[in-house]
Amino acid sequence: MKARCVGLVASTASEKTAQSVVRYMGESKGMHIPCISPIASHFRHTLLSSDEMTISSGPVPDMNAAALVIFTSGTTGPPKGAVQRRSYISGNGEADAAYYRITDKDTVLHVLPVHHASGVGLTFLPFLAAGACIEFRCGSFDTAWTWERWRRGGLTFFSGVPTIYMRMMRYYEENISHQAPEIRDQYVAGARQIRAMLCGTSALPGPVQEFWHNIRSKPILTRYGATEFGAVIKTELDSDGTPQNSVGCVAEAVSLKLTEEGQILVKCPYMFSK
Asked: Inter-axis angle of helices 181-193 and 143-152, to 10 degrees?
């Protein structure tokens, strides 16, 4: 089925332009489409009474039903498929968007695989929920390209894993730090423009965190979580006072318990279904 134009909606300011388009389509294309303008005149000025309302009879999605399968990293055994509920898609994304104060004015550079928990759960869904811009980088990760993209500016968020931040640090030390101050400062300024850099999947080494803190005058925001339930411990945007090498505080609506064997038991609203 092909899409077709069934009408043209225009505001008062663009009414003349819309009428011109309608005439052009009728005369040159033989298409006769209505022009709804000004659109404000078609709005109701009074509230609907209860007997005028119709409630949709369409099915309501089961928020506990399966929506997404993400495979674990296989740290302690073969990778396993974790089935995420619909509530993970909406609720977890909205919760992280609120936690990191993501808005439709933000732009995140997405360099992580979207079939991994961090790539979809943190760097995609929260920004999608907030209406932010998600800028993808195709192909494998490239340190030189990423530094050049930071240098151009326009980014407010970046999310990576420890190996990415280590490679970016090594590239800076080997290729940028020895350049003329005016060139080096452009790269540093690009990195500092990013409001928040996020990191997860494994522990961020102390020297790497220290390097980025010196570059940006703020730490990389670390977190702790798992494919089965998302990030349950997070570092806040305003991380002043957060202990060194800490992964932050327990997230809202999350219950944690440390067993005598050293295991962390987690209970949260976004647990995998099976």
From this structure: 80
Q: Which residue ranges form the domains of the chain, and what is each CATH number?
A: 1-40 (no CATH), 66-267 (3.40.50.12780)
DSSP string, 52-95: G-----SPPP-TTSEEEEEE---SSSS--EEEEEHHIIIIIHHH
196 vs 271, residue with greater confidence:
196
Which H or E run contains 214? helix 206-216
Token duo for residue 82? 């974790």
SS3 labels along 135-185: EECCCCCCHHHHHHHHHHCCCCEEEECHHHHHHHHHHHHHHHCCCCHHHHH
Residue 238 is classified by DSSP as: S
φ/ψ (deg, to 5) at 94: -65, -35
Identity of the highest mean pLDDT range in 66-75, 141-150, 251-260, 261-270:
141-150
Strand 107-110 relative to strand 133-136: parallel, antiparallel, unpaired?
Answer: parallel
Distance from C-alpha of 182 to C-alpha of 76, rounded to nearest angstrom = 47
pTM for the whole thing?
A: 0.73
33 vs 191: which has the higher pLDDT: 191
Question: Rounded to whole angstroms, how far apart are CA atoms 38 and 16?
Answer: 10
CA–CA distance, 109 with 133 (Å, rounded to integer) = 9
